[in-house]
Design goal:
With 254 residues, this protein is of the alpha+beta class. Helix content is 17%, strand content 39%. It has helices spanning 11-24, 75-81, 111-122, 192-202; strands at residues 2-5, 36-39, 45-47, 50-52, 65-67, 70-72, 85-89, 94-98, 130-139, 142-151, 154-161, 167-171, 208-217, 220-229, 232-239, 245-252. It has a 4-stranded antiparallel β-sheet, with helices on one face. The relative contact order is 0.08.
């Protein structure tokens, strides 16, 4: 057992609000009385069998505890980890939870806008950049674009909020990536857009592009292309000079 003080802002609401305030960053005012209560510590969380440690906006661990037969956990950390969008309506004092299947892409910025935001921040002209990945993803409970490109001898990684366009993270260090070196002139290489079109022509109708990355494999410079059509994933290598498909693999994602 562990004593908790300062929760007496109305037992029914104080405990809930304490979790919400820590995770949603809101202000709450309730009853004025203070009281000491005893809670049971030592509880942990798992999501789909994987251990999960809830943290607040500052990265600090948030306690999970039981009081009066009910286990209390931070709503934002738990719901976002489960793939839900969490928002707070200060007018109605309502915590709004939205499942991923209810979110639409109608308000999302485009891939081109995400690329432009990353290039502007990096101070790189589009003509000098080779894009490896521009992909819409769901991470930490929010939709975001993963943008990766290199220019010269520097690789740039960005995570950009798909609704607001805000840069969530950026990295300019080489991580498990080697800038391709080729013996022939890079002017002779086909473009990434050409490689994408070659792969899409091979794939069934309705296939979407996930990634197109320039790399070295078996002594050749290739575009590594990933595509998806429903539950089917396709991986192919395309010769960066001839445009020939060197490898084509398909895998059903179950």
């Amino acid at each position: 057992m562990k004593k908790q003080t300062g929760f007496g802002k109305g037992l029914a609401t104080g405990l809930v609000l304490s979790a919400l305030v820590a995770t949603l960053g809101i202000s709450a005012v309730a009853a004025t009385s203070n009281r000491t209560i005893q809670v049971e510590d030592g509880f942990s969380l798992s999501i789909n069998g994987a251990s999960f440690t809830p943290r607040d906006a500052n990265g600090s661990k948030v306690s999970v505890f039981r009081y009066n037969g009910t286990v209390y956990a931070p709503v934002r950390a738990v719901c976002e980890a489960a793939g839900m969008d969490v928002d707070y309506n200060s007018t109605t004092r309502t915590v709004e939870l939205t499942t991923a299947d209810q979110l639409t892409t109608g308000d999302y910025i485009t891939e081109a806008e995400a690329k432009s935001i990353a290039l502007k921040d990096a101070g790189v002209k589009e003509s000098a950049a080779v894009f490896l990945t521009v992909r819409l993803d769901w991470d930490d409970g929010r939709p975001e674009y993963e943008v990766e490109f290199y220019s010269g001898q520097t690789e740039y990684d960005y995570e950009i909020h798909a609704v607001t366009g805000a840069i969530l993270s950026s990295d300019r260090d080489l991580e498990n990536f080697e800038i391709p070196t080729v013996s022939a002139s890079s002017d002779d290489m086909i473009s990434a857009e050409k490689a994408k079109s070659i792969a899409l022509e091979r794939a069934p109708s309705g296939t979407t592009m996930l990634q197109c990355k320039l790399d070295r494999d078996d002594g050749r410079t290739v575009y590594e292309v990933e595509l998806r059509n429903g539950r089917m994933e396709y991986d192919c290598d395309i010769d960066a000079y001839t445009g020939a498909i060197l490898k084509w693999e398909s895998d059903y994602d179950d």
